[in-house]
């Protein structure tokens, strides 16, 4: 009987110590699992693209990429005259001629909103962008090459002059690949 009592006393003394060891082992296992999960999570591909790097001079591909991903909070401004705008413009663009800037957008656009602006020339777009920057708009990008570069990459357009016959080269894969490589070469020159 003394043997049983001694075993019970020893077990009673060891309970707190054993409990502490079990608790520490559990905490260590949880930490190892967290570390393993974190290490594996870092190896997984990112399901959405990282936030776009905003440049003061943007290419048509950069803008198209943002639109294709459905990125919110951007506005496209066409700083050409109304007649040119109605003839053809980037789908979704707002017409705001250079001489109406910044007053035309002062009360309608947020100062932190991403604005892409194009005009009849890169110089005119630069002038329009500068007017917006001076008015406090912080994220204004000039679309290099304007509407022409947008159309070269097959960007969506609208307007009265947008109905045209694409021609046989539009259906020829080799012609399209050649045209794409020419556009990429132009973009590299602009950077």
Task: Give the key terms.
191 residues, alpha/beta, Oxidized Rhodanese, domain 1, 2 domains, five-stranded parallel sheet, two-stranded antiparallel ribbon, 7 strands, Rhodanese-like_dom_sf, Rhodanese-like_dom
Description:
With about 190 residues, the protein is an alpha/beta fold. It has 2 domains: about 1-45; about 55-190, Oxidized Rhodanese, domain 1, CATH 3.40.250. The chain is built from 7 helices and 7 strands. The protein is elongated and about 110 Å long. It starts with a helix and ends with a helix. The model has no long low-confidence stretch (mean pLDDT about 85). InterPro entries: GlpE_sulfurtransferase, Rhodanese-like_dom, Rhodanese-like_dom_sf.
List the SSEs and their pairings.
Elements: H1 2-43, E1 57-58, H2 60-68, E2 74-78, H3 82-87, E3 89-90, E4 94-95, H4 103-106, E5 114-118, H5 122-134, E6 139-143, H6 146-152, E7 157-158, H7 173-190
Parallel strand pairs: 1-6, 2-4, 2-5, 5-6
Antiparallel strand pairs: 3-7
Quick structural overview:
By secondary structure, this protein is of the alpha/beta class. The chain has helices at 2-43, 60-68, 82-87, 103-106, 122-134, 146-152, 173-190; strands at 57-58, 74-78, 89-90, 94-95, 114-118, 139-143, 157-158.
**Class based on secondary structure composition and strand pairing:** alpha/beta
Strand content: 5-15%
Q: How would a textbook summarize the main sheet?
A: 5 strands, parallel
Radius of gyration: 31 Å
Low-pLDDT residue spans? none
H/E element order: HEHEHEEHEHEHEH
Q: Kindly provide the name of the CATH class of the largest domain.
A: Alpha Beta
CA distance, first residue to last residue: 91 Å
The CATH architecture name of the largest domain reads: 3-Layer(aba) Sandwich
Major beta sheet, strand line-up: 1-6-5-2-4
Shape: elongated
State the domain count: 2
Helical segment tally? Answer: 7
**Helix percentage range:** 40-55%
CATH topology of the largest domain: Oxidized Rhodanese, domain 1
Q: Give me the CATH superfamily of the largest domain.
A: Rhodanese-like domain
Organism: Oscillatoriales cyanobacterium SpSt-402
InterPro entries: GlpE_sulfurtransferase, Rhodanese-like_dom, Rhodanese-like_dom_sf
Domain Rhodanese: 70-159
Protein name: Rhodanese-like domain-containing protein
